[in-house]
Write a structure and sequence with these properties.
- This protein has 106 residues and is mostly helical.
- The chain has one domain.
- A two-stranded antiparallel sheet has the order 1-2.
- A hairpin with a 3-residue loop joins strand 1 and strand 2.
- The protein is globular.
- The termini are far apart.
């Protein structure tokens, strides 16, 4: 039996760039997964389980979105993984991945 996604408060979509949500392409040519797009349309900007911030693509003039804060966080993650690879911290990509995965642009 599937669970219904619930949202605390009233989600807003005024700031979400729905066109970019559907047309955005990552460096590998893939777009956002359908479940992510459905989540954004349902919840907008969100904090998942009180822990992870979900940054949707936002319209110009909004800073807390994929293009602003999301890009900054992605750059930081890439930096941490590059340092881990240089230091040969294999635990950072174990047990199923290799260093090519974090090297992929987001």
């Amino acid at each position: 039996m599937p669970h219904e996604l619930s949202v605390n408060g009233r989600p807003t979509l005024e700031h979400v760039d729905l066109e970019l949500l559907d047309s955005y392409r990552f460096p590998d040519g893939a777009g956002f997964p359908e479940l992510y797009r459905a989540f954004i349309r349902h919840a907008g900007w969100a904090r998942l389980f009180g822990l992870w911030l979900i940054y949707p693509p936002v319209l110009p003039g909004f800073a807390d979105g994929l293009q602003g804060r999301g890009e900054n966080l992605t750059a930081r993650f890439h930096s941490v993984y590059r340092e881990g690879e240089e230091e040969e911290f294999e635990w950072m990509v174990e047990p199923d991945a290799d260093w090519s995965l974090p090297a992929v642009g987001f």
